[in-house]
């Protein structure tokens, strides 16, 4: 059975519903309270069978098994399967790497995590991988990158703790009643609650540059009867300024959630899932039109048959009455005289 058919099965009301737009009671991979991290933790503690260094090195059949297990707890519209699979692989990959780091720390302290207490061979396999010279060299490079001072600007800091940027964005949406701008998100995530100052140097530089651009934008607007035609910078323009001023690395934009990782544009494009939903609704409407046309044809055929049948019954009744009348007339007439 395909995944599309599986998620279309009945009696899946217990499953958490996924949708990239997070409407209603749905959730998505970038939200902290989605339940997905806990699901991945359970899978990491029970479904690792071989000492793969990364999730990407895992064979396709094992990845498929993980995804099918995931589909037992989460569900989605069938047309979203490809998008869910892509997001799942990305989330599982980052989670696997994070778990590998935690397991390695225990290995360095001669500790054995609970999932490996009954499988010493698997634990030994991971230990052999971490003992390799090339693994140690890669680890040193990654550690240096994580602790990078960003060309003298210090380590990256924010005040969100374990909360994801997307979750904070959703909270701000409910607080404000509308989507916060990228600048609002940056300031909210990096402003110290006590000093009211932006501590992260990169974030402070970005916010200052965008504030200056926003001021210049307002000053450049024409006057109407001596009054500025525009007194507030549109959110799309602010977002464009932020995207232009923010450093990007491997498709990631500093300080912003996933939905801002597209190209800098003053207009929001229609989401893939929205186009897919539109295509699905169009198909459903075409099917409904076909069904209605078929029903109309059937009704016309039935009406024709009923009209023909009624006509035949009326004609038969008339003929029967006429035959009875003539029979009665012939009986009532006296016989001819001899």
TrEMBL record:
Annotated region described as Disordered, given as residue ranges: 137-156
Entry keyword set: Coiled coil
Source species, domain of life: Eukaryota
InterPro entries documented for this protein: Probable_transposase_24 (IPR004252)
Coiled coil ranges: 271-305
Protein name as it appears in the record: Transposase-like protein
Native source organism of the sequence: Cardamine amara subsp. amara
